[in-house]
Specification:
The protein has 9 helices and 10 strands. The strands form 2 sheets. A 7-stranded mixed beta sheet has the order 4-5-6-7-8-10-9, with helices on both faces. The chain is α+β, with helices and mostly antiparallel strands.
Length: 259
Amino acid sequence: MEKMNAAITIESTSSGSTSASASSATSAATTISLPALSKFNEVRELKLSEYKAAALCLAEAFATDDVAMYFIETPDRSKKSAAANWNLHVSILEYVVAAHCMKGLALTVGPNYDCVALWMPPGKNMDDLWTIVRSGMWRLSYQLSAEGKTRFFKEFLPLLHDTKAEVLGARDEDSWYLVYIGTKKTARGKGYARKLIEYVGKMADQEGRPCYLESSYDVNPVIYGKLGFEMRKKIQLLRGKKPVELDVMVREPVRVKRL
């Protein structure tokens, strides 16, 4: 919830629209200026202090995602409650968001962290010990179950690393990597995800660099295709009851006309 001019509160409705309510009884009528509202549609970089709020957006967006649940809903955690699984899901995303605030590019748009994107810029990574400690990623070594750790550290991370190197080749370290992007249900259909992708896409075009992503939703390749991404490969996680498939996609840089 954001306050405008100390007199107007912008509240999210169930339909995802915004409504204004006067907080001053002395004001007969109050108007919210368009510039004040439009600032919510501007892409901005997240600060480290915002990592928890941003993680909640991603947690909601990936609440039923097969990949997100792959490390949590394991046979050796079968007796854990739904609340325990949710808390671990949120914690994982808090660590990842924090790490991107430190070493990557974490972006948001909307009045209440309605859409969040985590990018890893060219030549960057979050593998150094200081980032792992500060972000909380080190906690996964004891928060994940034995099977969860095997899936995350010995299957998932190596598969993503090796696939990216294979697909991009010499450009692996010279690309923009979209690690996460998610939108709250109440904010979908507003073009927020497009804004966060195009924001970096324009920079990538200026630099002549590709953008890379993996996606686990069946409908996403069509959506990403409209934003310039092309399918390059399909990969699978194989330690669960059924394979979990990810689509690997690349957006090649668009040549920018020089004046």
